[in-house]
Each structure stands twice: as structure tokens, then as C-alpha cells.
Specification:
Blueprint: H1 2-27, H2 42-78, H3 90-103, H4 113-133, H5 139-162, H6 167-177, H7 186-205, H8 207-213, H9 217-222, H10 227-249, H11 255-267, H12 271-294, H13 304-327
Helix pairs in contact: 1-2, 1-12, 2-7, 2-10, 2-11, 2-12, 3-4, 3-5, 3-6, 3-10, 4-5, 4-10, 7-10, 8-12, 11-12
Length: about 325
Amino acid sequence: MSRQRSDASVGALLAASLVLVAALSIGIGRTSGGPSFGFGDPAIAQAVLVEIRLPRTLLGLLVGGTLGLCGAALQGLLRNPLAEPGLLGASSGAAFGAVLVFYFGLSAADTLLLPAGAVAGSLAALGALYGLAGRTGSVVTIVLAGIAINALAAALTSLALNFAPSPYAALEILFWMLGSLADRSLAHVWLTLPLMIPGWALVASAARGLDALTLGEETAQSLGFPPQRTQWLVIGGTALAVGAAVAVTGVVGFVGLVVPHLLRPWVGQHPRRLLAPSFVAGAVLTLAADVAIRLMPPGPELKLGVVTALLGAPFFLHLIMRPRIVAG
């Protein structure tokens, strides 16, 4: 019962934090804040709410939740505390797909072609992963295939930057890759959901298999949870959901790495119990970082991916150095 009460307390705290940070995200703008949105005209205030702040808040919730959920699932699948959603190539594939749209000038024709190209890149990366690792590929093979896809996509992206038709195009590509929730609309939300929802469902359906894998692959197989099935549920779900997230925001790193580690002392080590809290905590962290960006002094807006990297990189180094500290 104490564990159930603890889980309920953590869930209530996370839910309250999400409501608070979502309210702040809707109520705080880049240059003014408060419930009046800094405007005297109710029509203008409503337009700012519906067309600017609400889409930004919803995407922060969806993208952060996706990164937290998939990070927890991948760490459970690979039994590696340093695993994160970019490991499988979905993020880099999506980034390359978006870069191609920029490179050929298609984004000027329709703003939604940019996220559509990123989604196509993510799906292509998933297809390449499946082709390289095979249906029954081991975890090591899957990770190596993901690293290879990441390297190839990064090289092709650098090639596109090198041959960009103009310095402005190269700068536009670079800024998009840094990750941001600014200047997004509800159309971006509706574009991501058809891929995110199936991705979440695939990852959630692997929860019991992930718990079984903590006992070893042979034990999981004997319990009726084939490791290969669990692997592809997590991998397919991650590729779909994370690819859709990158498609609309650019690359936002470290959320999926940091969130599961922050929650394990409170919810335990079992992957199944970590998935839902990681979704909520990922949304909270992403929205909080975006709110912090809007509270900074006037000037060029800092990119969300830069802020999450500044927060996550020291945490990543701490994870690497902790065994040495303990051993010392």
C-alpha cells in the first residue's frame, strides 16, 4: 500500500506541476504576460491565445511527453541508463528530411511541407533500421544500425548545409535544427498527432514486456513476452512518435535522457511504472524550459534545443562520472 500511495503522490505532484506550467505557458508571452495577454482588445487577446500560445503549449506538452516516454522505454529495452530517443536515428532522419525541404525551397510554397518532409525522413530512417537490423535483430545490432543511420543522416545534413543555395538558406536550416516551439500553429499539432498517438500506443503495449526483460531475455521468452516483439514495439513506436516531434520542433535533446533518471528514486526501477510519469515529467520539463525562454530579457529568442542541452549536458556528464566517483 505504501508503494501505491507513493505512486499516487508522485502522480498528483506531476499532474499539478503540468497544470501549473501549462497555465504559465499560456499566460506568459515573449514581451508581456498576465491573463490580459498585454492587450486591451479582447479580439486581439483571443487571437494571441488561440493562434500563438495555445499551439505552443500543446506542442510543448506533446513533444516533451513523447521524449520522456520514449526515453524511459529505450532505457528499459536496452538496459542502458544513457539511452535516449535520438539513438535509433529517428531524430536525425527527420532532421535530414526537413533539411531537404529547406534545400529545395519547398518550405516557401507551404509551411506544412517542412514537417511533412521531416516525417518522411523519420519513416525512411525506421525503414533503414529495419532493413539493417532485420526482424529478429539483437539489441546490439539495433543500436549499431541506429548509430550508422545517425552518422549517415548527419553527414548528408552537413552536405546540404555545405551546398546550400544561399547563406540565408543555410542559416534557416541551422536555426530550425536548434529546436523551437515558436511560430507554430494548430495545424502542426494536427500533423503530429496521427503519428504520435500510434507511437505512444506501441510503446505502452510493450510495458509488460519491458518489465519481463529486466529478468533476462530467456526468462522474458518463457513468460510469454518474446524479446524481439518488445524490441520492435518500442523501436517502431519511438520512430513514429519522436519523428513526428522532431518534424514540428526541430531537434530537442536530453529530455528523454534526464527525465527517467529524475523519476526512478520516486517510482522505482520497473520500466512499466516509469512510462506514464516520464511522459508527464517530460512535458513539464519542456514547457518549463520554454517558459524560461520567454522570461529572458528582450532580444533574439533563445532556442529550446539550446536550453535543454545546457540543462542536460551537465547531467549527462554526471551520469558518466558517477561510477568513477563511487569507485574513488
